[in-house]
Write a structure and sequence with these properties.
The protein has 481 residues and is of the alpha/beta class. The chain has helices spanning 40-56, 64-80, 82-93, 97-117, 153-166, 184-193, 207-216, 229-241, 264-276, 296-309, 331-346, 378-381, 397-404, 420-429, 462-466, and strands spanning 4-5, 7-9, 12-14, 20-25, 30-36, 132-140, 143-147, 170-175, 200-204, 222-226, 246-249, 255-258, 288-292, 311-312, 324-325, 350-353, 368-371, 388-394, 412-416, 434-437, 456-457, 470-478. The protein folds into two domains: 4-249 and 456-474, 3-Layer(aba) Sandwich (Aldehyde Dehydrogenase, Chain A, domain 1), CATH 3.40.605.10; 255-442, Aldehyde Dehydrogenase, Chain A, domain 2, CATH 3.40.309.10. It binds nicotinamide-adenine-dinucleotide.
């Protein structure tokens, strides 16, 4: 592991004017590297470089299919370096090595998907009668600022960077303080495929300093943010100050409604992935299950079995796909989750299994299942962002929907039933940007993703996300004849 990692501004690897930050392996609590920290001046240099490239027209003049090829090649670069990226990701973030490989593969998929679509962003012609010729076209905004969270640092950057480049924007990426290392490969990829210096800039800095400076920079033309609600509000406020659009993806408290006719054996898999993948640090995690009272005890037994089947320990030792979980990203995040469990117990929730820190160094929390959770409890309202499943029960369909919709969030939701009518009704009634029927996380890079309510606005993934990165221009021509 390289001990010191720099920022990448205007095609050069540079130190940070705000010094350095330690990067810690959450599985051992040991410092594994230092990363350069950018200040507002560094952010300004990166934005100016991105702006210069944008104004030069080098990306916008290019035939889109060729731009798409560059984007595509960046994904291949990631796959060529998957061993190194995955290992670094596990060491900085804590997830099992096999999960890190899945993340890198997922990141590459974004470059493939959006690279393929660069040439499909087509305008239309609008009939205005004799003497006129009118068309629309989509132009990139210019400089896209992308502020990245620590839970999926590789996939989140890939998601916005690939779509932004495919549509001809230039980018400044603010990597997360806790997990900045793996973002270096995006800079390397940009260099390797031959993007011009300044087209992709990657810097790490403190949120309230470099992040805030980037969000408020007057030459940033569009912002993408994934993270917490308070930070999302700060960023939207900064964006409003410059009248630029932003996409906000702010997490959730997503619920699966499990009906009396659901296949609970199959649902074990949804519990496994829905709340214990990445130790539950997933914005669209299945953090609540709302089960029909007639199946509650059976579901709790199955959830307990799944939670207990997972071995918890250092991600770097967990090389093979299997029943295991790594560390959370930091002791602070782990303690926050453990504190939320303790408060839930005080409010009357019952710990069915888990709930404790592991008795060893590292940010480990047992996979946890909570029963007797009621909708008014904090644990049922607030995002834990950890491996903690809250189980609530319902008597009739209307109550299930009311509980599911009873938080400030609205990122995703799920319904599990053998009855298609019931599933369709629920899909219409659940207030969320994405509804899963009979499989949590069904969908992929092709399906639009984003929130209702405090989960944010704008959509990532799918064709829909492309329109975040372009603005419509109409050209109306008065002809002589
Ligand atoms: P955060 O929102 O504070 O940080 C996310 C990113 O925003 C980081 O890159 C950070 O440096 C930057 N940032 C922070 N303050 C900023 C500001 N004022 N202006 C511009 N950028 C700023 O999130 P966090 O502290 O890393 O995590 C806190 C909580 O956020 C978590 O417990 C979790 O609930 C939630 N979260 C959600 C997601 C998600 O995928 N939706 C991801 C990470 C965290």
């Amino acid at each position: 592991m390289k001990r010191y990692w720099q920022n990448f501004i205007d095609g050069a690897w540079v130190d940070g004017s705000a010094g350095r930050i330690n990067v810690t392996d959450p599985a051992t609590a040991e410092v594994i590297a230092e990363h350069a920290l950018a200040d507002a001046g560094d952010v300004d240099q990166a934005v100016q470089a991105a702006r210069r490239v944008h104004l030069s027209g080098v990306l916008t003049d290019m035939r889109p299919i060729e731009r798409g090829r560059l984007v595509h090649a960046m994904g291949r670069y990631l796959l060529e370096h998957i061993d190194d990226i995955a290992q670094t990701l596990t060491l900085e973030q804590g997830k099992p090595l096999w999960e890190s490989r899945i993340e890198v593969e997922g990141a590459a998929l974004y470059f493939e998907y959006y690279g393929n679509q660069a040439s499909t962003v087509e305008g239309r012609s609008i009939p205005l009668g004799k003497g006129y010729f009118d068309w629309t076209e989509y132009e990139p905004f210019g400089v896209s600022a992308q502020i990245i969270p620590w839970n999926y640092p590789v996939e989140m950057t890939a998601r916005s960077l690939s779509a932004a480049l495919a549509t001809g924007n230039t980018c400044v990426i603010k990597s997360p303080e806790m997990t900045p290392l793996t973002n270096a490969w995006f800079a390397q990829a940009a260099q390797a495929v031959g993007l011009p210096d300044g087209a992709v800039n990657v810097l790490c800095g403190l949120g309230h300093e470099a992040g805030a400076a980037l969000a408020a920079h007057r030459h940033v033309n569009q912002i993408v943010f994934t993270g917490s609600v308070p930070t999302g509000i700060a960023i939207a406020t900064a964006a409003a100050g410059n009248v630029v659009p932003c996409v906000l993806e702010l997490g959730g408290k997503s619920a699966a409604i499990v009906h009396d006719d659901a296949d609970l054996e199959a649902f074990e898999n949804d519990i496994r992935w829905g709340i214990y993948f990445n130790a539950g640090q997933v914005c669209s995690a299945m953090s609540r299950v709302i089960v029909h009272e007639s199946r509650e005890s059976e579901l709790l037994e199955r959830a307990e079995k799944i939670a207990k089947s997972l071995s918890v320990g250092p991600g770097i030792e967990r090389t093979e796909f299997g029943a295991n979980m790594g560390a959370m990203v930091s002791d602070a995040q782990r303690d926050r989750a453990a504190g939320m469990i303790a408060r839930a117990e005080e409010q009357g929730a019952k710990v069915v299994t888990g709930g404790r820190k592991l008795n060893r160094p590292g940010a480990f929390l047992e996979p946890t299942v909570l029963a007797n959770v009621t909708p008014d409890m904090k644990i049922a309202q607030q995002e834990v962002f950890g491996p903690v499943l809250s189980v609530l029960s319902f008597r009739d369909e209307a109550e299930a929907i009311e509980i599911a919709n009873g938080t400030d969030y609205g990122l995703v939701g799920g319904v599990f039933t053998a009855d298609l009518d019931r599933a369709t009704r629920a899909a219409r009634q659940i207030r969320a940007g994405q509804v899963f029927v009979n499989e949590w996380y069904a969908g992929g890079v092709e399906t639009p993703f984003g929130g209702y309510g405090k989960s944010g606005y704008g959509r990532e993934k799918g064709r829909e996300a492309l329109w975040n990165y372009v603005q419509t221009k109409n050209v109306a021509v008065r002809l002589k004849g």
